[in-house]
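[Meeting: bench + compute handoff]

Bench side (C.D.) handed over the final construct sequence. Compute side (W.E.) agreed to return the predicted structure before the next meeting so the bench team could plan truncations. Sequence as handed over:
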Amino acid sequence: MSLDQVDIKILDLLQSDANLTTAEVAEKVHLSQSPCRRRIHRYQDMGIVSGKVCILDREALGMQIVVFTTIKLSRTSGNALSEFEAAVGDFPEIVECYTMTGTMDYMLKIVAKDIRHYEQFVRTNLVQLPNIGEFHSHVAVTRIKDTTALPLMTQL
């Protein structure tokens, strides 16, 4: 997958505002509309652009708290990992989940209405999962940077 400077500029524009028309993107990168459209279709065919979404403001929707929770499973043999990962997928409050190196097995990003909602989620859902050996909650206080944009321009 080889991307040139124009590709990077187009992708950077699209990840910043998916509502841009092909004509607007083409104008900004100094291409005619047809080659620009072909490039965008190529990104979709290659899986670089996998969809378009609206990014909702969680605070405007009353979801005031973000908690990063690290989890260490009591056992990681057999189906323990796949069972945990399948269970995590069932909870809409968990918006991201990563396997980790180091002392913890997973890191979860959990969004909740408030601290009481988070506590209820932990008590009724999270600690009920099989093989939870240890977990630590890290409540985010101030959002300094929150972006979905990848650092494409640094790849030139």
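W.E. noted at the follow-up: Residues 88 and 134 are 16 Å apart (CA to CA). C.D. will use this when planning the next construct.
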